[in-house]
Amino acid sequence: MSIGEYDDAIDTLSHALTQRPDHPSSYHLLAIAYIKDKQYKNAAGVILKGLNYQFDGRFGAVHEILYDDLDLAYSLVMKTDSKDKEYFTKIKSEYKIKQLTKEIRFVLVWETDANDVDFHIYDKDGNHAFYSAMELASGGALYADLTGGYGPECFRIINPLAFPYKLEAHYYSRGPMGYGMGAVQIIRYDGEKTLNVDTRDYVIMNDGAFLDLGVVKE
Fold this sequence. Notes:
By secondary structure, the protein is of the alpha+beta class. It folds into two domains: 6-95, Serine Threonine Protein Phosphatase 5, Tetratricopeptide repeat, CATH 1.25.40; 103-216, Jelly Rolls, CATH 2.60.120. The protein has helices at residues 6-19, 24-36, 40-51, 62-79, 85-95, and strands at 103-110, 116-122, 128-129, 141-142, 153-158, 165-173, 180-189, 195-204, 210-216. It has a five-stranded antiparallel sheet with strand order 4-5-1-7-8, covered by helices on one side.
């Protein structure tokens, strides 16, 4: 996904989801790959499967993230000439799908179990959001703090104004595998027809380490 090879990502993530349907990040990542490939109905199918799955209680706010993904697919369908409009119109009321305005989401995932990778977000003024202060004064909030492995964790900002944002991962608690490996996605939607997804991979090895995930500019 980080190099834009969405066909390959779809193939790999489809296998991953079949093998481990209990891993919520696979639903989100596969849905985003389908959306970037303009396969909106397929994206919705994956998302609805996730919304109807009862995940382990350690995965907080996962359904909320998937609802955001569904809204994103719907918003793009309605703003374009996609052939999937009829399908989304049929399911809109049942799933309370809504049209999005300009927004940005930062979604952190990792591939290791029983460990805690914390997400830290800073705005242009140095305001800091993380697990014990989950909102920025300039706008945006962290959905949940997942402490038992895998993610996803999501920070969402509607109408972002406090660029540049700085993203950071903290290896708060190293698990039995001894490392944390994953990615952060910057999902930027302009409220019209344009979606940009920047996937940044990372590996974090040292317990207690902070890892710079880069800056997000306007």
